[in-house]
Amino acid sequence: MKYSSPRSSASRTAASRSARAVFFLSIALIAAFGCLGLGAQEVEAWFSTPETKKLYASILPEIRELGASLVASGLSESILTTRLDEAAGKRVSADRLLKTLKADTETCLWLSEAMRSRGLLPADSRKASDLVEQYALLMRAGISQADFKEALEASAAKVGSKAATTRALAVLAVLASAKSTYRLSSSESAKLAAALASSDIADRKLSAGLVDLVAEIAPGKATKKTDSSGKKQ
Q1: What are the φ and ψ backbone dihedral angles of 31, each rounded to 5 degrees?
Q2: Residue 113 in contact with residue 148, Cβ under 8 Å?
Q3: Which of 31, 114, 152, 182 has the fewest C-beta atoms under 10 angstroms from its C-beta?
């Protein structure tokens, strides 16, 4: 019988553990890069036809970079391909399209980070992208970053993290309309976002309580109340 010293046994054990660690790390990396590869195929697929290449081949390298930044942030390239479909249908120029895509991507990256930092961004890239796109539409309609932060944080405090993003969407949809109707200042708008989200009013009835909240936050800008039918009293 051969004698094994405690030191040699310990070395073999350590080596075995190290090998297992390397193995599992390799599996994790393969999975991660595999997901990135899948997420990065949508732009390439969109440019796979001669017609789309003819339209926007000149800006393909930049679009690839934008797509990579979205994927790295946990989002899907569908954010870009949706806009590409719209642009192709309207024959938007390449320069104009690229400018729009850069602005949209910047907005979406900001939104995703704002939600991620609060633990509210869905892990699934498709769900995350759908949510981010809805918020991005509201921001194009006049919602500011301050409005978004106030609505999101107040919603999370009011209804919890699971329902926070749905609540915030409802709040910001009402707020977007209120901003133009009542000509709210930036500070008034952010305060109204928080007030709506913190209220006891159900999501689908938020507009019904809007006038009273505006009267509290911006006296003089909502002097007449409305009933449930929307008629002035």
Answers
A1: -65, -45
A2: no
A3: 31
**Separation of alpha carbons 147 and 83, rounded Å:** 25
The model's pLDDT over 109-163, given as tens digits with 9 standing for 90+, comes to 999 999 999 999 999 999 999 999 999 999 999 999 999 999 999 999 999 999 9
Task: Tokens 């505006």: give the residue.
Answer: 214
Tokens of 51: 């017609």
The string over 149-161, giving b where at least 16 C-beta atoms fall within 10 Å of a residue's C-beta and e elsewhere, is bbbbbbbbebbee
- What DSSP line would sit under 152-186, residue for residue? HHHHHHHH-HHHHHHHHHHHHHHHHHHHHHHT--H
Dig out the tokens for 52 from the structure: 């789309």
Would you say 156 and 165 are in contact if contact means Cβ atoms under 8 Å apart?
no
SS3 content of the chain, % helix, strand, coil (to 5): 75, 0, 20
